[in-house]
Amino acid sequence: MQPGYVAPSSTEDFALPTLTHLQRLEAESIHILREVVAEAERPVMLYSVGKDSAVMLHLAAKAFWPSLPPFPLLHVDTTWKFRAMYEMRERMARELGFELLVHQNPEALAKGINPFDHGSALHTDLWKTEGLKQALDLHGFDVAFGGARRDEEKSRAKERIFSFRSAGHRWDPKAQRPELWRLYNARKSPGESIRVFPISNWTELDVWQYIHLENIPIVPLYYAAERPVVRRDGQLIMVDDDRMPLKPGETPEMKSVRFRTLGCYPLTGAVESTADSLPAIIQEMLLTTTSERQGRAIDHDQAGSMEKKKQEGYF
Amino acid sequence: MALDTATPTAPNAYKPSDLIGQDIDAYLAAHQTKSLLRFITCGSVDDGKSTLIGRLLYDSRQIFEDQLAQLEADSKRVGTQGQNIDFALLVDGLTAEREQGITIDVAYRFFATDRRKFIVADTPGHEQYTRNMVTGASTADLAVILVDARKGILTQTRRHSFLVSLMGIRHVVLAVNKMDLVGYDQSVFDAIVADYAAFAAQVGLADVLAIPLSGLAGDNIASKSDKTPWYSGPALMEHLETVELDADRLQAKAFRMPVQWVNRPNLDFRGFSGLIASGVVRPGDAVRVEPSGRTSTIARIVTKDGDLDQAVAGQSVTLTLADEVDCSRGDILAAATSAPEVADQFETTIVWMADEPLLPGRPYLLKIGARTVSAQITEIKHEINVNTLEERAAKSLPLNGIAVCNLSFDRPIGFDPYSEVPDTGGFILIDRMTNATVGAGMIRFALRRSQNIHWQALDVTKASRASDLGQKPAVIWFTGLSGAGKSTIANLVEKKLRFEGKHTYLLDGDNVRHGLNRDLGFTDADRVENIRRVGEVAKLMLDAGLIVLTAFISPFRSERRLARELLGPGEFFEVHVDTPLAVAEARDVKGLYAKARAGTLKNFTGVDSPYEAPESPEIVVDTASMTPEQAAEMIVERLRQGGYLRPDPEFSEGGGV
Asked: Which positions does UniProt annotate for ATP binding (chain B) (predicted)?
């Protein structure tokens, strides 16, 4: 046998399965989760309670089985999430046995920062961007898993799976490391941190398909139901609690709506829909003509806005 | 020409499955069996690469109306197509790139057809972005190499083809683009294909399919175009849907799994988690743990969804073994019948990715599979000109340089040649100071001598020699600027030690540069090699039982660390002779600073070559506050306190092998 030649595995003549794209995506994500746990000092998983988080959580449970995932969950809370999201958060932590940490930016809490009086940009910056940095520093987490995907937004298409942040959590597009094969360089100096995106290569359809196949629990808001909404700036905003000030002439009306993405309820547009099952949601998504993030008010501030947010430390 | 965007069902548009509307459950069932192809597109902005990708996304209905509206607005504002849609804007994400109209980094795009899901790595085509292209190519099964029909095969086409071959991509599409601008002329296409064939054979690309197309007009992309009736091959999309996947090729190889993580939820369970790099594994299979060579059999393939009766390349699993064998992160579990070779010296191909050049002799961290080792480039055999494929001698390797190099690891590992199994033969190099990924490489084969050199375990040991001499050996490593006073203090220390009857040796520029290192100059690469040799000589002398003093500027932290790591704990004293540059220059005992400032002496530390001060030296000599005599006395006292000046019955071997 010549040196370096890797002999075939078997002389038997059997057909082996070609892995499906979901199997390969799952294997890649599990590999990334394990690699971080093997190399990081204090990893944490950011849990936003949305569908991408749900998939990431499910993958983490698989990656370390029969061990429990060796890291806590962190929810960076804005106090303005949908009520159904808070219910789901408590349920998942209870059922999966994860340690759940919740962080609310005390400064934003003291000032009563909200999207109505302060605008979406400041609201997002203080609650989410600053809140996240505070929480990571407070607990000394050096690696944070996030559920971002490359297909969500143009500037994400270039994001590494391991994204480096300098000591001030800043993202410098020029200082990112090359990522080859399945080799991730997780070494860093004290004070530096890494954001890791295990589902980078999943698309919105992949996520829905996987949720469907694996029976992953998701917040009911993703399914269509009769909900009280008002139309504002071309978006359907759900009146989720009595903190929402109504403008003159606005009366909430009951419409059959669902959400393609979940965030703070005043900033998250609903779509009119009757899709009340996963196949129906997927069907609607495949036939739809608008992209997933269109319901996010924060993306439309200006061109390149996501990139600017990222440089400041937003996920 | 204008793109027809008003009707998403233009003749050439790739129609979504009718099943979505009629029977979503059937559609989902079909969608679950799709395979995944990753491919790379190579070409420059001018080749219409972004337009082609935009077209693929558009024709497979991956662009939504809101994105299209944004795209139309952007096209009018900053587009390069006048009032028409500029598809390149879909793909060039970063603001800076939009402004410059070029793609700087690897962007990953996603689209799907009814048969396959695709991940496209879009990389820039210019030579200064070679590293980005190599990065994108590392995970690809196929490469689409774009050629402008009006320009034919260019230098960059050859470069891209060479890199594709280097990275082990087995399938190539030669996309002859902009056929609309040459009137869909068959003779133009045929000439380009003939021109390319010879070159493809030269770089070892066996499977090449040439397709005439137009990204702008959509010819031969989603479906066959009636404008090229003379072309009998498949449309691009059809070929992408049917080409062989590398994952399937790897299934036929012997079983390999680098162990990522040892899974121990309790005392009764010990599993080895990892992603299978090649082959198939089943319970009952005999396996070997490399590099230790211990053997066992597979007991279970554990997943959260229940145990499996087989697992294949590409799957992430947890394996348990029938025996309690020692196995940890970084080891490779392999088929016992066809285990990987184990070696610590290799011939490799390296692609350099950092602004700082690669220097032979400098220790880098190297990550291969789940193992990180320390490695040195022992020799750059030759650098390869990526444009002409010419080989030339090189002493260091610049950014985007590619070279065949010999590498020496600090320990033996199990491996396969990269061309056989990428996951057990591909590696990255990491800078020890900055932690940046500075290079990538591929193992070609193990060097014979690495299997043959076995350290002779001698009966006469360092400890026995040293106790005969009545001392404990150590290396006192003086570092500092030229003229700081290193040699002066080192000489005084040696005199004091001789006076106490100790056995010493002083290595400095006078007795090393004129003999052993006569072949070395003062470039960064030569400085690194100079210090590497001094470190090795000091180690041998320490082995002889001596107290060794070295007086070299030794400007780089990484080489001083290398010298330190050659020795055992407690054997290395770094002494920083700390004299400010202005003071050393004012003394200028040898008149060297004056020459350096005048430009007649190049690469002089402190003037046009850097000095990296030690971060945590054992001893700091502040020459502003003490005389050389006081400094020497302080160092000797430290040795005395540390028990180095008397025999040490407890002395145990450190370093050594």
From this structure: 480-487
